[in-house]
Amino acid sequence: MDVIDKNNKTLDYTPLWRLSLNRFRRNKLAVLGTIVLIILIITAIFAPLIVQYDRDEQNLLKIYQKPSKAHILGTDELGRDVFTRLLYGGRVSLSVGLISTTISVVIGVVLGIIAGYYGKKADIIIMRIVDIFMCFPFFVIAITMAAILGPSIWNVMIITGVLGWTSICRMVRAEVMSIKEREFVEAAKALGLTNREIMFKHILPNTFAVIIVYATLGIANGILSEAGLSFLGLGVKQPQPSWGNMLAAAQNLQSLQHRWWLWIPSGLLVFITILSINFVGDGLRDALDPKLKQ
Amino acid sequence: MKQYIIRRLLLMIPVFIGISIITFALIHSTPGDPYIMMIDGNLNVEDREMMLREIGYYDSIPVKYIKWVSRAVRGDLGYSIRYREPVTDVMLRRIGNTLLLSFSALLISSIIAIPLGIISATKQYSIFDYIATVIALIGVSIPAFFFALGLIKTLAVDLKLFPISGIETIGVNLTGFKKVLDILHHMALPLIVLTFMQTASLMRYTRSAMLEVLQQDYIRTARAKGLPEKAVIYKHALRNAMISISTLITISLGYLLSGAVLTETVFVWPGMGTLLYQAVSNRDYPLITSGTLLIALCVLFANLLSDILYAVIDPRIRYD
């Protein structure tokens, strides 16, 4: 983008997002993570085009088959193709990560802005709620909630989202507290804008960097929680596959010992996904940090 | 300082009440009759109803909560439905095992992670830093139970180096030193899992805390006045970085207590995590409520401790 200065000379001006993008691109691990994630997302979306079996297609004559040409990653206890179910499971795990994070971000950002902007009583009350939620042992409350709501993919999203908003809330609050002292907020007030306009139109966009970084890490957290809950049998229920409930196959000692294809691929996929997200998260944090210079 | 601690303690009260209300309401909205196992199946319907009414099964949740609180402040946390003995007794038997596991993990990981983090920060962008950072990222990314299953498969099932689960060999009555060895043998695998993950996050934290301090002006001053690099790093930088590192360690204590549920469950380690997981599957209301609150209380105290520690070691913090 070009900016014309007083003397009508064109100055070379790089917009902030381009600076960040350049910085991000120089981080090799972050780029690697992005590529891996894109591949995982594409294979999950286009799963039906990639595989040759149906998701729940059973073949009781071919149970517990070792990986072969017909079944790249073997078959499970009902003779279903493990590779097929892994790809479909990716849809579940990735969407749980995305949607639960969306829930956390909405709750955390709204409460964080209110606490940071209004301060005083609103701040005290909201921060006590944050304290309460931070003290809950996540898995105990999550399995209790799962027992109430029943195991299903939507409930896993809700549980993880509702329990996971505190760190975003605290970061946003801290950001807002420093931003609201800046001149442009004073100017907006002087212009007679309403509090809501100032909060959501003027302050919120300035906290995007923090939100993006924390949301990225939140997705990783969501995927981990889904895997944990489904592993304990309280998350996504069979026959719908998810990486977590496929890992539960390893609870059978026979499978753990002799049928690696049932649980290692799904565990590795969770691991690789989280690792890639963390690479990207670290890259974003460095790239979006306004304190660092080009 | 005294006032600061008292104020922080007072602030904990509404938070703890909030936690107890939410936990209580949540647990008592779980569907199903938990007493079905407790009451004799041959009892006729009317007697059954009467018994249930007597123990307050039909009370509304607020009434149940008030009854529960009035008993709890007198130290009566109720009877475990599953174990048929006071909840306090059941928990007392288990909490020691959880503390043993989490304190050991915290201690070992602090010993490993802090030096590694310092070296990584002082030699930023070196091969050592690169490898350590990647390993640490692996540690924070690997799902605890997947790592646990991998260890069980390779070290316990295939190589038979360690037992698969539990805390002691069943059916053998060991005493003294042999018993300690037996417990250590059982503890090894869950300890590796918890320690590796804790080390990874603590190392990442130490590294970034050190990097931040090393950029400060007083470090440049220390170097400029000709101090040897060792003195700069260990006397000037580390002491300041330790402020935030030590608070993280105390906070991790609470996190380890509540986060060990999955690891404990996979290894069937008889601690609070396994106990609570089984309590949820058995609908053991009194046990879930007290167990959850006990862990929440530990987390709350760990956080308080870290705040106080922060105030004590950092003279810049004002107490008001």
Tally of separate helices of chain B: 12
* Percentage of residues in DSSP E strands of chain B: under 5%
What is the approximate shape of chain A?
elongated
CATH class of the domain at 94-279 in chain B: Mainly Alpha
Spatial ordering of strands, largest sheet of chain A: 1-2
CATH architecture of chain A: Orthogonal Bundle
Query: What is the tally of helical segments of chain A?
Result: 14
Could you name the CATH homologous superfamily of chain A?
MetI-like
The percent of residues in helical segments of chain B reads over 70%
Give the overall shape of chain B, derived from the CA principal axes.
globular
Task: Give the overall average pLDDT of chain A.
Answer: 85
Outline the biggest β-sheet of chain A. Answer: 2 strands, antiparallel
> In angstroms, what is the radius of gyration of chain A?
23 Å
Q: What can you see in these coordinates?
A:
The complex is a heterodimer of chains A (294) and B (320). Chain A is mainly α and 294 residues long. Chain A has a single domain, classed as MetI-like fold (Orthogonal Bundle), CATH 1.10.3720.10. Helix content of chain A is 69%, strand content 2%. The model of chain A has no long low-confidence stretch (mean pLDDT 85). With 320 residues, chain B is an all-alpha fold. Chain B has a domain of 186 residues: MetI-like (MetI-like fold). Chain B contains twelve helices and no strands. Chain B is globular. In chain B, 38% of the residues are buried. The model of chain B has no long low-confidence stretch (mean pLDDT 85). The chains are: A mainly alpha (294), B mainly alpha (320). The interface between A and B is large, with 40 and 50 residues. Chain B: InterPro entries: BPD_transp_1_N (IPR045621), MetI-like (IPR000515), MetI-like_sf (IPR035906).
